[in-house]
Amino acid sequence: MNVRCTALSLLLLGGLAAAAPPGRTCHLPGSEEALRCVTVPVPLDYGTPGKTITVHATVAAAFRESARPDPLFVLAGGPGQAGSDILPVVQAAFRRVRATRDIVLIDQRGTGLSGKLDCKTPPDIDTMTEEQADADALRCVRSLAAPYGSYTTDAAARDIERVRQALGYRQINLWGGSYGTRLAQHYARLYPASVRALVLDGVAAPDQVIPAGGRDAQAALETTFAQCEKEAACARTFPALRSEFASLASQLAKGPIKIDMADPRTAAVRPVTISLRRFVATVHRVLYAQADARSLPFLIHSAYNGRWEPFVARSNRDTDLSADGAMAGPLYLAVVCAEDFPRLTPQLVADDTRGSFLGAPQVTQLAALCPAVNVKPVAWPAATRIAAPALLLSGAQDPVTPPRRAAAAAQWMPAAQHLVVKNGGHIVSPLGCIPRLMREFLDSPATPVAAVCLDEIPAPTFQLDAAGPQP
After folding, report:
1. Which GO terms describe its biological process (predicted)?
2. Which listed site, 100, 141, 407, 448, has its alpha carbon 20 to 30 Å from 419?
3. How many folded domains does the chain comprise?
C-alpha cells in the first residue's frame, strides 16, 4: 500500500418495469465492449447536506437477457483504486457470474472517474530521492486543497447505497478485494437489508490497521525463502539467499546506494538512488502475487552481485502506465490518516515491526504526510454481526491480508464460509476454479461450496535467471 503509488447492453432494473436505463453507453480502457456509465450525485458531507459531488459506476450487463435481479457490486482495493481501474477483472474473475448477473464496478469517491484525487506523476519519479518524493507528495496534497475529511470509508459506503437506489436494484451482492473488504463489511453493517450475499477476497479484519503489516509481510517472505530451499533448482541456484537478503538490508540501513545504470525502459544511462525504504517497499509489493514472489530470489541475488537493473525495473513497475500505477495517493492518505494512523500506537508499531524486514518506513512517511492532509481522527466503529451469507477467500501466502485476518472477520459472520488457496497470494478470485465457485455461491449462498478443486491450483515456478520463470 504505497502512499505514492505512483500505487458494466442496457441495464435491466431488477424486478422493475422496463424504463430508460440510467447513464450512457461508454467505452473505457481495459474493455473492448460497450458498457454503461452512470454518475450519481451524492452529498459531499452526509452530516451537512448541501454541496454534492458525483460518484461513477460502470455497469457490465449480464450476458443473458433474463438476468437475475441481484447484481454483483465490485469494490476495489487500496484505498485509492477505482472499479474502472480493474475492468480486466470482469473477464478474468467474474465471467461466470456475469452470465446471469449484472456486474457493477464502483469508483469510490476520490478515485478513478469519481473526482480522482491525484497529481500528475513527475517524469523523474524513478530517480527521486526519498526527500524529493516526500516533498512532491506534500506539494500534491496541499495543491489539491480538497476537503479530505469527507473522503472516509463511511461516506463511501453511503455512496454505494445511493448508487444502488439510482440503479433500481432491491438487493445487491458485494465483492470486495483487500481494502474493498473493509468497505463491503461497513456497507453490510450500515444497510443489512440491501445485502443479499458477500464475496470477500483478501479479507481485512475489523480491527486491522492498514500500515501495520510487518508481521504478515515477514511471514510471506519466510515462506518464499523456505519454498526456494525445498525446490532443488532454486536452492542450487541461490544457496545463500537469506544471507544475501540480510546483507543488502544491512548495507542499505547504513545509507542509500547510488549507482549509474541504463534505464530499463529507455536504455539511457542515469543515476539511481536505492534506499532502504525503496528496497523493502519493492520486496513487499513483489510478495503480493505468487508469480511475482517466485522472481524474488533472482532479484535479490542479482542485486547482491551488483546487478540492480532487474530489481529497479520491478520497482519502477508501479509508476508505469498500468493498473498498478492508477492508485489515487491523496485518497489513500485521506482514509488512512483519519482511520488508521490514529490507532498506530508506539506499542503496536514496536510489536508489528519486531523481527520484520518491513520495519517502520511507511509509519515514518505517514507521520510526515498526515499533518498536511489535516483530517480529524475517525473513531472506527466496533464490529457487529453481519447476517448475510459470506464467502471469504484467502491466499495462504498473502503478505497483507493472510487467512488469520479473514478468520478474525468471520467471527462476526455466522453464515460465512472461508476458503484458503494454498498456492495463493493477495487476491485469488481469478485463479483456477474460483470464478466457478463464486458463481455457485452466489446462485445458492446457503449451500456449502465444494472447494476440493482449490488444491489443483499450482504454484508458479521460480525464476532462476534473466530468461524468466522455469518452464
Report:
1. proteolysis
2. 100
3. 1
